[in-house]
Amino acid sequence: MPAPHYCCNSRYKFSLVGWIATMPAGMAGIRLSHDYVMCKQQRKSLFCALMKQLFLIAFLAMSLSPTHSQVASVFNRISAEDAMGLASNQVNCLHQDNRGFIWVGTANGLQRFDGSKFIRFQHRSNSVPIDEVNHIVEDDKGRLWLSFIASREFGVFNPSDYSYRHVPLKVSGEIPVRAEYNLWKDKRGDIFLNISKFGVLRYNEKEAAFTEDTPFKLPKGWKPGIRYFEDTVKDHLYMVSFDSGIAVYDYKTRETYTSRYNPKKIAVISDPRVQRVNSFYIDSRRRAWVFFWPVWGGGTQIKQCFDSIGRSLPDTAGLNPSNLGYTEYHDMFETHDGNLWVRGLNILFSSSEDENRFTYYKSDHEHNYLIQYNTVNQVMEDWDGSIWVATDKGLFFTNAGTDRYVSNLWFDESKGNSFITDILQAKNGDYWFADWGKGVFVLDRKFRRKENFAYKTPVPANWTLATKLAYNDTWALHEESKTGLIWIGNNGGILNIHDPVRKTSRWLIDSVFDNRTIRTITEDKNGALWFGTQGGRVIKYEGGKFRVMQQFYAIISKVFIDRQNIVWASVLEKGLYAIDRETGQILQHYHKDDKKNPTFGNTANDIEQLSDSIIV
Fold it and tell me: The pTM is what?
């Protein structure tokens, strides 16, 4: 198979979601697992402009508070009119995957957001359909389960190779024409599909289809809705029905409880006031929230809060503001620190643990720093604690007051300039940061500082003073797949080969590096390590031996291994080269003067593969 073609020089590469707004201006070259990079000058300009904008927005927000709000919140809007590439302002669903990427389901298909730009997937055979995406659920294998309700299409998408597989529904009866759907995963990792007024399906691995073979049995004649709540404390699954109330499946006893059969005396399902339920939620304080349309309500949706023994609580204050017109309260979401969000048709509310009432976010089409919506389709919290809101008027995000941003904690330039050159996410979830002049430091998956033993082993005593001083001028990081060793590349061709289990390091200077800075490290599919140096050498390490595979006499900014195990090297002012891993022979060369496939320039800061045939 021929090597993939290079698409563009891609100088606009991306930084990690949530870090752009808090990244110090002096930082350089930050990337996640050798993927996305933003150059120092681009980030400095973006950071300065963004800080000025946020300062102005905050000042205006204090002066122009929403009518029903106690506290004004500043929202950043991403729309289809921006240059960021959002495919549609109809945003239905959101998901942050295990690598930190945010996936967005829009009226025009599935997209991936990398911090500054959206990637859209083109439809080919065996690829994701270009259709309205309504749900995104990640399974335990990192695959994304998707629903396309308008076309009654369901399937699973693999982000690693961009492949898509249709998943059929194998059912005994006929699904109602106007049925609603909800795709979800339980704590055991099973994938379910709720179909209103029909039933609940579970993905059957053997049949490669959704079937009616579920662990819980609903009462005869019980017609489920689309919403559910999994109580991991009690090991209960709550299923709501507009016609039949609430059913509770007990994972331990494998019984299903309803108002007619309630041996555990679960208060909320026995309350005769709770009728025609459309949403149920239990928060971290063990309060049960129920949104329902009872017969006795006169056509009004009731919002009720109960304690653990079924007593009504006054905690719904603020959820019923006047003069809103017609509204529908769809469901509730809780953040890591106990903030509650309620979303639906013409409504968006939030409350925090220290507030005694909910704050209403009015849709405002006049001010760009306030939110706009007719329907709020989903509220999501990312790893940084920022709140993302999917609406029919675009995608919005706001910093919900968290202080857990990595840059605020560790990249504070009041303690000296930070020059971040590489980021590695290890297999255990830890983040390793390379800081030129300060060495490496490590954060856990929740961005908490961890003790670092990379420098516990001292450098050799026979090294010259100049060499010793370069031990923490770090440029590149890589975790070797077979051994778990962390390879740390530095100035002067210095390698620190660190064993994170034994907490020891082996210091190495090999003449193959010619005392030049090690700028990039990666690994091919055979387990060989590849290095790119400041002096222009592409070096392979295999079988315990280093070997120079190419000499370009210019800085190697990135070495990349594609899906066909072809080695790509980005060379300063010379372009992009494809190299045979066995012989080092140049297979392809792309540059701006190439008459057949010219690039935008001769310098690329990073390389990424979008498909089997496209390299950017």
Answer: 0.61
